[in-house]
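seq:
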Amino acid sequence: MSLESISDPAQQHAYRVGYRMGLNGRAITDTPSYVVQNAELLKQFQLGWQEGYDQLLATRQDDRQYKRKLRLTWFVIMVLGGLATSGAMIDSIEQEKKSILPVTAERPLGTLPVTKEHQNYDDYQLSLLSDEARADLNYLQKQQQNKIQISEAPLEPTTLVIEQSQLSAHGQKLENQIGKHIRELSWQALVTPKQSVKNMEIKWIWQDELIQSSSVSSTDSKGEISDKIQLSSAWQGRWRLELWQNNQPIYREYFDYGYPSQ
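struct:
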C-alpha cells in the first residue's frame, strides 16, 4: 500500500509517523499511544513502519556491499603498489651489483679480464686484506707458477753424520709443532765430515709439494749448515725437510705447521 491510496488525513499521518520510525530504526513497540487506541491508525502506522524499516535494511545492505568493495579495491591497489615497489628495488639492486662487478662466472681473485672496472674491484678486495695476508697471496701466486711435486722416497745410504738438528724462529728454539703465527722458520744442523757437503741441497716440502730448495756448498767453521724459509698461512699441515746429495735424499725430518699460538 502506498501513501497516495490513503484518503483519510489521520491515517496518512499515522502512516508517515510509522514510516519515519521504521526508517530511523526505532522499534515498533514505540508506537504512540494515540495510534494504539485506534485500530485503523494502528494498521496504517504498522504498514508505514514496515516500509520504512525494509528501506533501512536495504540501505544498510547496500552500504555494507559498498564498504566491502571499497576495502577490496584498496587491498588490490596496495598489493599492486607493493609489487611495483619491490620490482623497482630489486632492479636497482641488480643494476648496482652489475656496476660493481660485471662477472659472468666464478673466477679466482686476479683472473678477471683486465678492464678498469675489474681492476678496481680486485684492488678493493686486496685492500680488505691485512699486510700479512696480502704478502701471503703474492708469495703463493709466484709459487704456483713453478709447482714441483716430490713424493717421499727411501733415503740413500751416506757417510755423512747429521746431528744437533734444530728448528728456530727469531732465535728461539722450536719443537716439531710450529705455531701458525711463525712466518720465518730457520733450521740448523751439524754435519761431519765437513768436507762432504758438496752437491747438497736443503729442500722444504709441504704435502709432497716443493716449496723451497737451497744449495749447500760448504759449512761454517763449526761444521754447521743452515737455511730459512718464509711460511704462509696457506701451508698449514705436515712438512718434510730433506737433505739431498747428488739428486738423492739422504736425510729427512718432519714438522707440523699451523698450531694455535700459545
